[in-house]
């Protein structure tokens, strides 16, 4: 345990978050996502796990991880197949975690399922969660922390 660090963030996840640079993508995936096979294609090349619901994982990650302010797709969710405008409860809960972490409403774009898989393969890493609800899959692009920020 460390002061000020969410206990869900294990050593492997902390190392990956620290190693990532500006513009790298992080995938937070539900338990149905092909996390292991996709993770093998990422920069890290192996799967990370946090066995908790996706909103709790997003909150923990975003407590340390800055979102990219230079792009419109820094936060993304997997689109519901056949219903692209639907936003399931799990996605609304993660949206609330994003807004709280950023201190303001933050746009989260929808990405078609297969396009989300392709984005995930190009990501730095994948964290598989214990989320059992469908469409609990998210991509977060890392931003920067200014020199004068804590």
From TrEMBL:
Keywords: Isomerase. GO terms for biological process: fucose metabolic process. Gene3D superfamilies: RbsD-like domain (3.40.1650.10). It holds the Pfam family RbsD_FucU. It comes from the Bacteria. It catalyses: alpha-L-fucose = beta-L-fucose; beta-D-ribopyranose = beta-D-ribofuranose. This is Ribose ABC transporter. It comes from Kumtagia ephedrae. The lineage of its organism: Bacteria, Pseudomonadati, Pseudomonadota, Alphaproteobacteria, Hyphomicrobiales.
């Amino acid at each position: 345990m460390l002061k000020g660090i969410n206990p869900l963030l294990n050593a492997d996840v902390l190392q990956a978050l620290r190693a990532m640079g500006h513009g790298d993508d992080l995938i937070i995936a539900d338990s149905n996502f092909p996390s292991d096979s996709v993770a093998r294609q990422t920069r890290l090349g192996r799967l990370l796990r946090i066995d908790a619901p996706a909103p709790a994982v997003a909150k923990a990650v975003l407590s340390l991880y800055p979102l990219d302010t230079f792009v419109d797709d820094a936060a993304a969710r997997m689109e519901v197949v056949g219903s692209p405008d639907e936003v399931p409860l799990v996605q609304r809960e993660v949206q609330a975690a994003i807004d709280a972490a950023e201190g303001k409403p933050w746009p989260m774009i929808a990405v078609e399922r297969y396009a989300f898989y392709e984005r995930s393969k190009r990501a730095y890493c994948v964290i598989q969660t214990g989320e059992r609800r469908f469409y609990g899959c998210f991509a977060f692009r890392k931003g920067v922390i200014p020199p004068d920020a804590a």
